[in-house]
Amino acid sequence: MRLVDAVVAMRSSRFDVPLTYEAGVSDLRVGEVIRVPLGRREMLAYVVRSPYEGTPPLGVRAVSGRLDVPPAFDETGLALARFVADAYLCTLSEALGAVVRAEALPRIADVVVRAAAFPHPVRYPSVPQRLLSLVWNDLDESFPLERLLRHPEARRIADRATLLRHVAKLVRSGDLEKRRRLVDARAHAYRIRLLSVASTAPKGKKARALYDLVALAGTVPYADAVLAGFSSAVIARCVHAGSLREELRSPQRATSTTSEIGHVSSVEQQRAIEQIEASVRARSFAQTLLFGVTGSGKTLVYLRAIESVVRGRGKAIVLVPEIALTPQTAARFEAVFGGRVAVFHSGLSARDRIDAWQACARGEIDVVVGARSAVFAPLRDVRLLVVDEAHENTYKQDVVPRYHAVAVARERMRLENGVLLLGSATPSLESYAAARAGRLALIGL
Fold it and tell me: Where do the H-state alpha helices sit in 64-119?
């Protein structure tokens, strides 16, 4: 029987090992999101092992289905999550919380559905009339339970526990039904609505003009068609008639050309750059401590070394302390690497984080600059990982899943046979002692 191992998408300490399900004929890959039965409920889960042939455990159940969404992580992300789980004593599902952009994935949630007409208040003397009116008159026919519990009017009526008791009473009587459904993600990546030709021209002067416009351009954004004077009704008529096709596409990131690094390297900087480039070309795991006081030119060394990596078709990640991730810092990398750089920091909106994360997974990004969470960016073939001011305590995550970004960066470079470059003006005693003992290469500026 074909089996597959999956981790339930629940950040809980109760599930410490993957669960085994019957894969059926589905061609599942690591990181894909699937629906699985768990007890009497259906849950979302992440595939952590590709389907394999094996003897099924007693009572094994089948995968319910696969979600039509991009994989939540790749093999490297899974390996890093396992490292975090082992090193920092948390479950794999908790560790995956650092790797997965959960806000971009659909959720299975409790949904309340009205099963009868407005009930007579006499039937429910203990249920407030205002709550009945809210459920039957103001909310949709089916709605997530959390929407009711967080509704301002419901919070004025009673506290959360009391509201749950009232809803349970209405469910027991049959006037409401509680179901579990797949609900939309909390945030979405930016998509553009595009119009393209599907079949023959439609009838009507205005519709024909729209058709000719799209046929001439190949594809036309929906917004451009509206700006050109075509109403939403005309566009909808062409789409419903089958003359035009409407689809959603991810916008292409700007591919602005890179510019030369303006500064000339000093003799010390050039020697450091050449040493780092040699380590990268060796394509084996290596660690280097770049020891230089503030203002000694470490950033220029980073830029030159990363430029060499990108020329060799490799990728790079630069971790900086959150407090140092200013617009000026990001601008220096964007000026050199153009639209092939992504910046991650806490000030980004959920949509911006999703867009940047998915661009990394699609291979549109060469360089990632960000705080500690950027160490999990889904880049392929990362050959150089820079940790600026590596001694800073801000690289320690103090909420579950807890981890030290420097340790995760070291593990990532070990997995990818890359170079870990620790830059610091005041290196930690551990790093400096390791460098003096020869376990790390030491470069001074």
Answer: 75-87, 92-95
